[in-house]
Fold:
Amino acid sequence: MTQADLIDEARIAGPGVSASGAKPELVLKSSEFRKGREEGWRELENLVQRVERRGVRSLTLDELQQLPMLYRAALSSLSVARTIALDRNLLLYLENLALRAYLVVYGPRVGAFEGLRAFFVYDLPAAVRAARWHILIVTIALLLGVAAGFLLTVQDEAWMTALVPADLAGGRGPSVTAAELRSKELFAPWPGAAEAFGIFANVLFSHNTLVGLLSFGLGLAAGIPTLLLTLYQGLTLGAFLALHYNRGLAVDFLGWISIHGTSELGALILLSAGGLVIADKILFPGRYSRVENLALHGRQAAMMGVGGVLMLFVAGVLEGGFRQLVQSTPLRFAIGLGIGALWLIYYSRCGRREPK
Amino acid sequence: MMSVQDAPRGPPPLPSLPPLPPLPPLPPLPPLPPLLPLPSALEERASRVFGDLRRQRREIVTPEGVPVTVQIADYGERLAAFSIDFAIWTLLSLLIYLPVFLIIFRTGGSLIAISIALFIGFIVRNLYFIYFELAWQGSTPGKRVIGLRVIDRRGGPLLPSAVIARNLTREVEMFIPLGILLEGGRSVGGGVDWSQLSTAVWLLFFAALPAINRDRMRGGDLIAGTMVIALPRLALSSDLVERAMQFTFTPQQLKAYGAFELQVLEELLRRPPSAETTQVLDEVCDKICRKIGWTDSLPRREVTAFLRDFYTAERAYLEREQLFGKTRADKYAKPAAPP
Structure:
């Protein structure tokens, strides 16, 4: 700091100086500050602009090393300018520059495909593992539903019509015979590629998908609708099981449904558990506000939603392609349980060793 | 063994201490000095005067601990950006669909067509958004044209998982109302159509979601912890400070105004020269002269020079006062008391 840096009151006032004819000279700290640093700001602006236009790869190695240093310098300039300068244009410019540089420096550092890989190898299984209690609750609700549906329908098949909507039952009511179930449902011939894909498309928009996504979305409504929907899904399944059980087809039915059911029920459980996570974070925000807490943990729920949709896709392919192609019950069990085991291993083991 | 048992265990018990005398009551804390107004609040006020403050503002804190103001994107801007993206990915999907459709016309299967089209649509639109938001630092072609960015709401880095979550949630946001619409269309019954009613409520809720929260987040933003901001580019203009001054002012005269008036004056002086600007500057000059009691004659052609000198002197004065902790927000604030 030289003496000239200090603003001398006499120089501001200085009527005597003015009278003597010499023009008074005024040195502002903020002006000098700007003069000393402007070059660095311009350099940073240039780099940031190039990244915004052509991506980070357009910078050379030297420039890349310079970028964070220039960014920190600009941030420090901003902090200083806020305390010493009243130049509006300068303050706005520095704030804008700091923000743009911040977005470049702290932007996503991985490419889309690396990001996707890291997501499926580490983030997704970790998110599912973190929600094991929610998954347990949902599974219990589903099993309760299955048990209740089974017990009700086994003693009185009129419950079937009450529990299962007509379009879902597809004619499989109390009057259906074992032979009909066997030839039209369990061991129906493979309809061919076109039909199989049709079923696949249908599954995508089918009842179950909708229910899964609804359970997830309804987590926003404190999670009660989520649990009710899961319970109801269990009831439907239990009713179907009882219908087949009464006709001595329980094992064949389980085999028929397991081929895609392990994936589909897994998806339903995962989506409902995701909904419960959302409800949990909204109901019990802890030390944060509810929205803050949702933002903090919502990513976990969203990832579980992604996992659920993924499983639904697989279930759709299996249901359309493989279910009627494989006609033997033991083989169906093998495929269904094998895929279920694969899901279990993926979610419980994958990406465990290398925590991100 | 005996010796171990006989040895004293641990140190002997300490004699009990006399009770401590009660502490004297603490002297009352001196009142805190008034907080400095945030610079951004000041800028905001000046911006409001000139009507160039359209967007809502939020403050985020960078990992270095510096608060930075961001401008939240308007509904219109987001809709425009989405429309552009929508157009691009529809074209992209169509390009991919074309060979698929050709095959279908040969074989004549419509179900395959629909399912493959749906599948490709799903893949293309999700990869499109995820790819660009990761590769282009949180913007897609549409957002780039409009000048929008996706950022982490708490100022942290934008993680790939957040980008993936916020875009796949769009799927859920669209799927649910769409699915219900399909379901609702199927059921035909008399009386109140509850499914249609709930559809309407759902759709309304998701459409209204950005409107009922302060940060205009849609469901995906809410869950991924992101928000969409507008990022205009600002240029640095030259410094208005004059080194050599023609006019001089007394501290008494400079006490007439505060930081707000200074920034308004700066804004006026930065306007491109025109007949209107000249007229405004003349009026402002007259007002200032009256306020500070300027009695010397002032020819019209020297108005700009006078105002620039006044700006320089006023800024020097106010900045120095600010350094001493005596911030003055505007002319109504109490002038700093003499020591």
